[in-house]
Structures are given as structure tokens and as C-alpha cells.
Amino acid sequence: MGRTFAVLCVIARVALAGSIPADGEALFRDCEFKAAAHVFAQALTNEPANARLHFWLGKSYARMAEVSGPWSARRNGRKAQAHLETAVHLEPAKREYLMELFELYVDSPEYFDGGLNRATAILERLGPDDGGPGSPSRIVAESRKEYSGPSWALRKGILRLSGAAGYLAPPR
Q1: Is 3 exposed, middle or buried (0-12, 13-18, 19+ CB in 10 A)?
Q2: pTM for the whole thing?
Q3: Which is nearest to 131 in space by CA: 122, 121, 139, 143?
Q4: Cα–Cα distance measured from residue 129 to residue 122, given in angstroms and rounded to the nearest whole number
Q5: Which residues contact 51 (CB under 8 A, 6 or more apart)?
Q6: pLDDT, mean over the chain
């Protein structure tokens, strides 16, 4: 009887642990990024070396950065970076994790020193592509154009005045 109860407890714990990330993914799909981040962070307390949980937590913070104000965006972007880099470190061959980190650097290079250079390094890890529209190499090339020239200089000046100087990527 005691052994059966112990086995049932283990099964229940495994089932519950398995449902936490699924709940977080459902919240993420419903654009409840903050709630999803909370679920993934809670799950990470039990499994700190789980690359999938770091990936989803980083992805949640990245979306929170996209929809929040400039001060929160910077903080959430840094949290996204930390968790996505951890996911990539834990599973370096997982293309999905590399692509999410690549997109974070390309979409917001002003929040990360050398963001486009970091994206280029990830591009090298991804391997060659066809260079067509939407390909990672084309995305980096277009971002380099966007984050250079007079409009970038003006944007960079405004960010410096707002105190974001430590997060700026150098102009290309």
C-alpha cells in the first residue's frame, strides 16, 4: 500500500511538472506574456538546467520587451537575452533557440552592445543560407542599413539623452 502511494505521488508530480510548461505555452499563445514568464520561472526553480524552460522564459521576456515602454523594454530585453543565451548554451545545436536569440539581437540592437555583431556570430553558427528575402543573412544586412546613417544617429542621440547609452550598439 505504501509503495503504491509513493508511486502515485511520483506520477502526479511528473504529470504536474509536465503541465506547467504546457500551461505557460498556452498563456504565451494567448499573449499573456507576463503570466507565461511567471509559469516558466516557477518551473525553472525545479529544473534550472532545462533548456526548453529557459527558451520559453526568454521568449516571454522578449515579447514583453516588444510591448512595453522604453524602461521596461530594456530590462525585459536583458532578461530575454540571459535566458535565451542560457538555452543556447545548454543545447547549442537547437536551431529554434539560436533563431530566437538571433532575432532578439537583430530586432533590438540598441539594447545590446554589439547586437548586430552578435547576430552575425549566430548567423555563422546557423550555416549558409540562400540570401533571399527573409533569410538570416538578408535580415542582418537590412538591419545594418537601418541602424546606420542620419536616422540612426538621431535615434542614438535620443537614446543617449534618455540614459540608455550603455545599451547602444555602435553604428555600423
Answers
A1: exposed
A2: 0.70
A3: 139
A4: 13
A5: 86, 87, 90, 91, 94, 97
A6: 77
Phi, psi of 48 (to 5 degrees): -65, -15
Instruction: Return phi, psi of residue 127, to 5°.
Output: 95, 175
Residue pLDDT, tens place only, 74-98? 899 999 999 999 999 999 999 999 9
- On the question of pLDDT at 130 being above 80, the answer is no
Tell me the per-residue pLDDT of 7-33, one tens digit each, with 9 for 90 and over: 344 344 444 444 457 899 999 999 999
Residues of the chain with CATH 1.25.40.10: 1-92
Cell 507576463 sits at which residue?
Answer: 34
Question: What is the C-alpha separation between 60 and 78, in angstroms, rounded?
Answer: 12
Q: Which three cell numbers stand for residue 122?
A: 549566430
- Name the one residue in this structure whose C-alpha cell is 537614446: 159
Tell me which of 164 and 119 has the higher pLDDT: 119
Correct CATH for 1-92 of 2.60.40.10, 3.40.50.1980, 1.20.1300.10, 1.25.40.10: 1.25.40.10
Q: In the structure grid, which three cell numbers stand for residue 78, read together?
A: 536583458
| Lookup result for grid cell 511528473 | 14
105: burial class by Cβ within 10 Å (0-12, 13-18, 19+)? buried
